[in-house]
């Protein structure tokens, strides 16, 4: 028996209508159902941070969030960060400026986490940035450049 | 992961009624349940989403204590000015746990009920034997890789460590868990494995953690949570200690003290023998070191976790000396 739930999800300011199995995670709904592949699937078990998105402005992991659970919430993904004009978000620009990646796979999650980290007021020093970005792993080891990018974006925020 | 049906509870009573059905499991932050469902450890037939019950996410404080709703998020509780000022061990235990993303998702009730990180428990595809998952099937950890397993409160059936931090602080501060129709102390709420390691708490089917109450006290106000781990951040405790300390007016004699251990036992581990040994004594390094050795009374090592027997008393001593202004 295939059961589905019918959902309305508010993502990046747009309402999407979709049918999913109840067990469908927000991450899979974004990537497989809605074509929003900017949010990455890394470990898929809540350890790496590659799937970080914002729900009602708070950074969370899309791989451990049911799509059905966030109906009625406001979701922001990496695709929703840049301005309508195409101008990059200051954190995106800082990541480019500081070459804060190598392969780029963890980058959308790093950027979503960094935007929240700065908004939370947790980017006051390199030490604080390292602690409050600890939920985002970078297997290329671009951490020093990531810290530099977050620090610069925090200074201009 | 097996599929399940999804219900959104519209009240706490609705949630408890639905949760009483066989195969039903409550979903709050999801960081334990959905993780374990992916591992094949949890196989709910129906998931009852309680994450939208706003009435259970309040934090209410007065002179007698604080009541933390079961659905308050770890991050919100950690950052609450009242908690930081009057119950610092609670705030610290939360901030030293998980990652910011997980703390934004995970709730206080769910945090208490998180399951062990024993890798044998978490991998049913490879390890059939696990008395916690399949009662009577044996224990794959005993004789296996045990660096993160418990040395206190173990049994021949199970040596899995309780992984949480918050509960250690709550046990030290004599919190009670509100289950709706009854209240139990945090210490009693968690049970040692014995011959029934599948049973980890007093929670019965159809019951739900509604809130946590922490009494205000001088020991709560002057408390700390010290966590030692293999990485600097985002890691479970190798050993941890929650300590609350109240000194006499002379600033050096112990009037009251609370000590609980994490990362080394099968449940949050209150050590009353250390408290008794230090009440009325003048704090100094030798006295504290000697008393802290009581932390590992009855400890049993299983290979790789032997280091915890040396580490745990040192963590306790450092936490006490720090609170006493001696470290």
Summarize the structure in words.
The complex is a heterodimer of chains A (157) and B (327). Chain A folds into two domains: 5-77, Beta-grasp domain (Ubiquitin-like (UB roll), Roll), CATH 3.10.20; 90-156, Orthogonal Bundle (DNA polymerase, domain 1), CATH 1.10.150.120. In chain A, helix 2 packs across helix 5 (143-156) and helix 3 packs parallel to helix 5 (143-156). Chain A starts with a strand and ends with a helix. Chain A has 157 residues and is of the alpha+beta class. In chain A, strand 1 and strand 2 (14-20) form a beta hairpin. Chain A has helices spanning 26-33, 90-97, 107-119, 126-132, 143-156, and strands at 5-11, 14-20, 52-55, 58-61, 74-76. Chain A has five helices and five strands. Chain A has a five-stranded mixed beta sheet with strand order 2-1-5-3-4, with helices on both faces. Chain B is built from 13 helices and twelve strands. Chain B has a five-stranded antiparallel beta sheet. The mean pLDDT of chain B is 97. Chain B has 327 residues and is α+β, with helices and mostly antiparallel strands. Chain B has helices at 12-19, 33-39, 74-79, 81-86, 88-95, 100-105, 108-112, 166-172, 186-189, 218-221, 272-278, 285-292, 307-323, and strands at 5-8, 24-27, 46-49, 59-62, 65-69, 176-178, 183-185, 211-215, 223-228, 239-247, 254-262, 269-270. Chain B folds into two domains: 5-49, 2-Layer Sandwich (Uridine Diphospho-n-acetylenolpyruvylglucosamine Reductase, domain 2), CATH 3.30.43; 57-113 and 162-323, 2-Layer Sandwich (Enolase-like, domain 1), CATH 3.30.390.50. The A-B interface holds A 3, 5, 21-23, 25, 44-46, 49, 52, 58-61, 64-66, 68-69, 72, 113, 116-117, 120, 122, 130-132, 134-136 and B 1-6, 8, 27, 30-31, 34-35, 37-39, 47, 49, 51-52, 75, 98-102, 104-105, 233-234.
